[in-house]
Write a structure and sequence with these properties.
alpha/beta; TIM Barrel; elongated; 16 strands; Lyase, Ornithine Decarboxylase, Chain A, domain 1; 12 helices; 23% strand; 366 residues
């Protein structure tokens, strides 16, 4: 092979190198441990929706349970069943709360999935699925009260009837919990929601319900408001080291970003360098002229985003083909954090990571 052919072959290999994601599972476990310490004695439910916030459902789930987490939030039944099928036994509570009319509640009840129930119809469907079973297994349900966010949930005027129905169905329904979502928009609104939630629990107890778990807080409320923690908190973004925005950094929360996104410089020239990653991989076109990328510890501004490439400003011609660029990560290599990207592009960190293509290879650091 001639020198020219070797150069062409090397160049082709560099251009074909895909973007890549590193997921630091040890950092994830440390984040969970820090959050458990902060919110104790409440328990942590690790939320794994959207493929573990883009980090990878099963590796993250296994890391969470290895760290001692005994409750997982799956969002939907298909994801919950994937977790059970992956070998997570019923000593791990798996919670699914986005129920569709055609969901297989029979399979969910058989697998011991905890169901977030937002209506009388859903409650009756769960009871029917359980009553058809020959082994006497009851459906595990968490009744959701709407405390003002209007994201599903039983309305206050219908709440007494739904709770009474759950009590009447106790032969086929195990009322495990009462829960809600709160807006986390302002302290005043959240205080009102918490007050309404306690009133709903009191109504349920008055008609004979004995819920084991009360939960309403997600990451931000659980971190900042002790009165929101109750028995269980649902930790999503904070577990992955994704802060809530508004200038608050993960470091200020004592958390470490878990994901690092890298790409390769595949061409240089005319004061520009091109990375082999683009909008087709989930990078927003809004990143142009707003964010920078670290190569060899130096930041280079993003000036354009194409379908499968990003252009960086390189006026001094410092970059070379094959250089590794770090788009975002924990900041240890001079790169921006995910929060910097989110603040610069007017979004939130979890939107950025969940938008990344699942075709990007993930490498898991133990």
């Amino acid at each position: 092979m001639s020198d020219a052919e070797q150069i062409d072959d090397i160049s082709a290999g560099l251009q074909a190198m895909p973007p890549r994601i590193s997921v630091d599972l040890a950092a994830y476990a440390r984040n969970l441990d820090a959050l458990r310490t902060r919110i104790a004695p409440a328990e942590v439910m690790a939320v794994l929706k959207s493929d573990g916030y883009g980090h990878g459902l099963l590796p993250v789930a296994r890391a969470a349970t290895a760290a001692g987490i005994t409750a997982l939030g799956a969002l939907d039944i298909d994801t919950a069943l994937r977790l059970r099928d992956a070998g997570l036994g019923e000593e791990v509570l798996i919670f699914a709360w986005l129920l569709a009319p055609d969901d297989d509640l029979d399979a969910a009840v058989a697998a011991g999935i905890d169901l977030g129930i937002s209506s009388l119809d859903e409650l009756d469907r769960a009871a029917v699925a359980a009553s058809a079973r020959p082994d006497g297994r009851r459906a595990r349900v968490h009744l959701k009260i709407d405390t003002g966010l209007h994201r599903n949930g039983v309305s206050p005027e219908h709440w007494p009837a739904v709770v009474e129905r759950a009590v009447l169905l106790r032969d086929s329904v195990d009322l495990v919990g009462i829960w809600t979502h709160i807006a986390e928009a302002s302290d005043e609104e959240d205080t009102d929601a918490i007050t309404r939630f306690h009133s709903a629990v009191a109504v349920a107890q008055a008609v004979g319900a004995e819920p084991q778990l009360r939960h309403l807080a997600a990451s931000a409320a659980a971190f900042f408001r002790a009165d929101s923690r109750l028995d269980l908190v649902r930790i999503g973004a904070f577990g992955y080291g994704i802060s809530p925005g508004g200038g608050i950094t993960p470091a200020e929360l004592g958390l470490t970003p878990v994901m690092t996104l890298c790409a390769t410089v595949d061409s240089v020239g005319d004061g520009r360098a091109r990375l082999a990653i683009g909008s087709g991989d989930g990078i927003s076109s809004g990143a142009a002229d707003r964010v920078s990328v670290a190569v060899n510890g130096t930041r280079y501004p993003v000036i354009e985003v194409g379908l499968d490439w990003i252009a960086l400003a390189d006026p001094d011609g410092m970059l070379q083909r094959g250089d590794e660029a770090v788009l975002f990560g924990p900041g240890t290599r001079g790169e921006a954090t995910l929060q910097e990207w989110a603040d610069a592009t007017g979004t939130i960190g979890e939107e950025i990571v969940t938008r990344l293509s699942r075709d990007i290879p993930r490498r898991y650091l133990p």
